[in-house]
Amino acid sequence: MKMKTRVLSPALRKVAKNELGEDLEKIAADLIVLRAWVQELGQGQPSNQWLIGFLRGSKHNVEKAKSKLEKYYSLKVSIPEFYTNRDPMDPKIQALLEHGIYLPLRKCAREDSPRPAIIRAGPLYKHQHAVADLIKISFMIAEILLLEDDNFTVAGKDILVDMQETGFGLLSQWTPSIAMKSMTCVEKALPIRLKHIQLINSPRGIMAAVAILKMFLGSKMRKRIQVCGPNYEDIYENLPKSILPEEYGGTDGSVQELIGYWKNKVESYRDWFLHQERTS
User: Fold this and answer.
1) SS3 category, 60
2) Beta carbons of 166 and 122 less than 8 angstroms apart
3) Neighbour-count burial of 194, counting CB atoms closer than 10 A to its CB (0-12 exposed, 13-18 middle, 19+ buried)
């Protein structure tokens, strides 16, 4: 049986082998097992690319991948604020896309680097969206990356959180309950490998919000969270200027261009999101 998934670049193939234990000889058999498992759960016919994302997110441990898949489908029901009403043409989703709340960058630092993304908390606060809306839109885009982006599935992702023009009203929404639900999804149900989280333009009180987040993280992940100073120089070692938008001192286009790209991309997946909701 041939493995109908994208062929990795040599650099990512090396990461997949060394960090994830990826073995091309075993993948086809593992995909058969996972597809049977998803069908047993009553969740239809997922693509190989979807399933291999869960394999990679579980470092090719089939039992862990099965557990993540089961958790993913069960959390779609038990945490509806993150997984329901995800029609990209819904006015609420349209507003989130137009405001550019969550924006993966077009380039990575290196060919084998994690996929970087910017969370822009200012528009979230200004337009009075809920933190749960941010989590919903970020999970929607993460699912697209899971299907399309090999850097994301193999090397993981880096997050730059821009807290400019936010206030206490937004921070107060980051309750232990929301933190627990979001990290349960990230760590137990989605094959996401978070490599770094950097916060910039942080308001007063941010350390309390970070402390709440760290309550639900393992020791390894806690060390990957960095609150940067007012100077953007702190972020350039991990995210070079060549991959950042102009608004962050970079040279790769503008934030508005990224907003347009991701709005169109999410809209193009409308049928997929509607199907996912029907099979919940």
Assistant:
1) coil
2) yes
3) middle
- Token code pair at residue 20: 């994830």
Residues 96-119 have pLDDT tens digits of 999 999 999 999 999 999 999 999
Looking at per-residue pLDDT, the higher value among 19 and 122 belongs to 19
Residue pLDDT, tens place only, 127-149: 888 888 889 999 999 999 999 99
Instruction: Tally Cβ neighbours within 10 Å of residue 127.
Output: 13
User: Does residue 198 contact residue 226 with C-beta atoms inside 8 Å?
Assistant: yes
29 contact partners, CB below 8 Å, separation of at least 6: none
Query: Quick one: which of 251, 237, 166 has its CA closest to 198?
Result: 237
Q: Which amino acid is at 109?
A: A
pTM for the whole structure: 0.90
**Joined tokens for residue 66:** 């099965």
Which residue's entry shows tokens 């969550």?
102
User: What value does the mean pLDDT take over residues 166-184?
Assistant: 77
Domain spans of the chain?
10-81, 86-271
Which ranges of the chain would DSSP assign to H, the alpha helix?
10-20, 24-40, 48-57, 62-78, 80-83, 91-99, 121-126, 131-148, 150, 168-171, 176-184, 206-214, 219-222, 255-268, 270-278
The amino acid that residue 262 corresponds to is W
Strand partners, 121: none
**Inter-helix orientation angle 255-268/131-148, to 10°:** 70
* pLDDT tens-digit map of 249-267: 999 999 999 999 999 999 9
Tell me the pLDDT of the chain averaged across its residues.
89
CATH superfamily, domain 86-271, is CRAL-TRIO lipid binding domain (3.40.525.10)
User: Counting Cβ atoms within 10 Å, is residue 228 exposed (0-12), middle (13-18) or buried (19+)?
Assistant: middle
